[in-house]
Each structure stands twice: as structure tokens, then as C-alpha cells.
Design goal:
Blueprint (H helix, E strand, L loop, with lengths): L2 E6 L17 H4 L9 H9 L1 H14 L6 E5 L5 E6 L5 E5 L5 H9 L22 E2 L7 H11 L3 H17 L5 H14 L8 H21 L1
Parallel strand pairs: 1-2
Antiparallel strand pairs: 1-3, 2-5, 3-4
Protein name: 1-deoxy-D-xylulose-5-phosphate reductoisomerase
Cofactor: Mn(2+); Mg(2+)
Family: Belongs to the DXR family.
Length: 219
């Protein structure tokens, strides 16, 4: 295997520049084109924090270096991930742009349940698009690679600070761009260390939430 490719829908703000994201509203952030996932996860899809967490998960689950995990924007979301091999071939995991099949497979593994969703109709003309990720407008994935590479308690801090910032965004306390910007400030302030226990992770989580809250209040 040469690399993994994780696809992102791009969320409701796909194609927008950083400047165009400054004044977006919580209601706009929740208007995902494909999925209804609740406030936190839908907002994470808009910032691409969700994709940053998936990159960390892929690294941990499959023991693949971060430099061999790519993120590509695929608005139709029929292709969920791909595995590229050394001979130049690629195998894609395809399925309906819904979470029914992944949830069912998680519950029934290693078996596959019948008729969970409708497969793609290959007799119908259709076009699928792929675009490079805009790291300037959506820096969450780049930041996730940073915290994932640092390891230890950094990923827990990234996640916890984001949850606080998402709540503040929906409360009207901070803007959309402030979500990831504040998470980055919390990560920068964190004195990470190897994970020694669950309690150690929970302490880092609590610290990140408190520090993110303090930064938001100061601003």
C-alpha cells in the first residue's frame, strides 16, 4: 500500500475563500448538502475538523504515516475512501452518501446485512468531482496532522478545544474562523506529554476546555 485517501464533502462552504468565511452564520454552517449529523459534527464538517480527526484515526487504526494519508474534496460523497497501491492501482470504497451502511457494518462486522441501502445505479449517467483541499481556507486538517504527529495528549486537546469553540460559535460569542484559530492557540499553549492513563487524557481534555473558554472570554 502506498497511501490512503480520505474524501471530504467540503461541507456547505466548499469553494469559499477564507475572507468569504468571516461572516458566515451558524445556520449556514448547519446547512450541510448531504448529511444531517447534529450541531457539533455538522459544524465540524463545515470547518473540516471532522476530516482532521479522521486523518488521526486512519493513522492510528492502520499504522500509516501522516505523510501517506491524503484528503481530497469529493462533493457527491459516493466515494468515502481509497487505497492506493505501489503498482499505481487504486481501490475505492463506494456507497450511498449516507451513514446507514457504515453503521450497519459496525454493528454486524464481520458480516454484512442485506438491503441496508440502495447501491449506485450504474445505468444512470452521472459525474463525480474531485478537488484539492484548500488548506488556507480550511486549516483544520493541517492542524490535525500537526497534533497527530506530536501525539500524546495533543489530539485530545484538539478535540476538546474544538467542542468548546463550536458551542461558542453557535452562541454567537465567536465567528466561524475563530473556531479553528482558537483551537490552534490552545494546541500551541499545551505542554503535551505521553499518555499514561485514561485519567491523563481526561485531565488534558479538561485543561483544553478551560483554556479555550479563557481565550474566548479574553477576546
Amino acid at each position: 500500500m502506498r497511501r490512503l485517501v480520505v474524501t471530504a464533502s467540503g461541507g456547505p462552504f466548499r469553494g469559499r475563500s477564507r475572507d468569504e468565511l468571516r461572516e458566515v452564520s451558524p445556520e449556514q454552517a448547519l446547512a450541510h448538502p448531504n448529511y444531517a449529523m447534529g450541531r457539533v459534527i455538522t459544524t465540524n464538517s463545515a470547518t473540516l475538523v471532522n476530516k482532521g480527526l479522521e486523518v488521526i484515526e486512519a493513522h492510528l487504526l492502520f499504522d500509516i504515516p501522516f505523510e501517506r494519508i491524503d484528503v481530497v474534496v469529493h462533493p457527491q460523497q459516493w466515494i468515502h475512501s481509497m487505497v492506493e497501491f505501489h503498482d499505481g492501482s487504486t481501490i475505492a470504497q463506494m456507497g450511498p452518501p449516507r451513514m446507514l451502511v457504515p453503521i450497519a457494518l459496525g454493528l454486524s462486522w464481520p458480516e454484512r446485512l442485506a438491503d441496508i441501502d440502495e447501491p449506485c445505479d450504474w445505468t444512470r449517467a452521472q459525474t463525480w468531482d474531485f478537488h484539492p483541499l484548500d488548506d488556507e481556507a480550511f486549516p483544520a486538517v493541517r492542524l490535525a496532522r500537526q497534533v497527530g504527529t506530536a501525539g500524546g495528549t495533543y489530539p485530545a486537546v484538539y478535540n476538546a478545544a474544538n467542542e468548546v469553540c463550536v458551542a461558542a460559535f453557535h452562541d454567537g460569542t465567536i465567528g466561524f474562523l475563530d473556531i479553528v484559530d482558537t483551537v490552534a492557540r490552545v494546541v500551541e499553549a499545551h505542554d503535551g506529554s505521553p499518555v499514561e492513563s485514561v485519567e491523563h487524557v481526561l485531565a488534558a481534555d479538561a485543561w483544553a476546555r478551560a483554556h479555550a473558554t479563557a481565550l474566548i472570554q479574553l477576546d
